[in-house]
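Task 17 of the worksheet. Students: predict the tertiary structure of the chain below and write it out as structure tokens. Keep your answer in the requested format; marks are given for formatting as well as content.
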Amino acid sequence: MSAVGNEPLARQALAFVLAGGRGSRLLELTDRRAKPAVYFGGKSRIIDFALSNAVNSGIRRIAVATQYKAHSLIRHLQMGWNFFRPERNESFDILPASQRVSENMWYVGTADAVYQNIDIIESHACRFIVVLAGDHIYKMDYEVMLREHVESGADVTVGCLEMPRAESSGFGIMHIDEKGWIHSFLEKPKDPPPMPGKPDVSLASMGIYVFNAKFLFDQLKRDAEDPNSNHDFGRDIIPYLVKNGRAFAHQFSTSCVRSSSHNGAYWRDVGTVDAYWSANIDLTDVVPELDLFDRAWPIWSYAEITPPAKFVHDEESRRGQAVSSLVSGGCIISGAALRRALLFTGVRVNSYANVENAVIMPYVNVGRGARLKNVVIDRGVDIPEGLVVGEDPEFDAKRFRTTEQGISLITQPMIDKLNT
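Model answer:
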């Protein structure tokens, strides 16, 4: 229960989204854009999931800290997230690293990104700060986590999920007691400790934290004065509070938004090309784990004004058709065949082309007779007529960036090299 009657706690919160990361494991996909700005799901960007969760949870004051190659991200935020109204006690601040504290310091770590903007955050006079990572795919009701934070009396509440131990070395791993209090926190351990009674499972941090605002500001100021700190939540702030304060673990399974009672707790870190391809292709399943059609918890984004998708020609071997695919507005499938493909806005696939297991970003042109399988194609690429990818892995690896799972990432510079 909040301090102001029955008002949701989310109305007293500010969401601070950390969106400065490069995401270097996405290889050329982040050459020109930060990881949170990478396209996902046919119409969205990765950051839209954290922002949509905040809005759908009732949080109406949001700040986004940007840093690495932020132009694409900032332009998306300006076009797609400009509907907040100050007169309704709403705000949306874009906070690029701008040397506000020191003339020679960008954001040093995740905690420093918040610390450098304390004056802006304090001006909103919020009771709670919800710190979010801007680079994961999931649906979550932060109101549930806020309530648990208040009821437990914790100094910090950490969002966490159970993860296969073999996959958890890249995350903060915690050990909790039976009541949910965190007794140890290890940032990205090489040998992640298992959960009690679950030898193959670790409890991983989602990079989501809830603080009382004043307490957070005090901790950030303390941390900023520590010359030995990395000024990072996972490396410094959270381990310090585990040792010296009261840190509580919030289980994602209790606040995950499911489209039906049968769905599991869906959360994906799409930080590698294989993981990115897989999460997008999964959306073509008959009943995908992530439901983009759920109108009760929509994923907000910038929606371009486009004509409907168009399928033309109906001759043998030249039939515009798509099976188990998602095709966005402005696409033209001209006598070509798609199977398990996800096409973003404005893609054109020309006659006699065959496309399978493909994630194709906006405004790609696929030339006549091309055969593409197991590919991720970056925005605006012009695929030459007759190009074949996905049938000879060794040959593909010489021309394109090919992953361990055999997924080929194709960019325009790679195509240009084919002709030199």
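Marker's comment: The radius of gyration is 23 Å. The CA atoms of residues 142 and 415 lie 44 Å apart.
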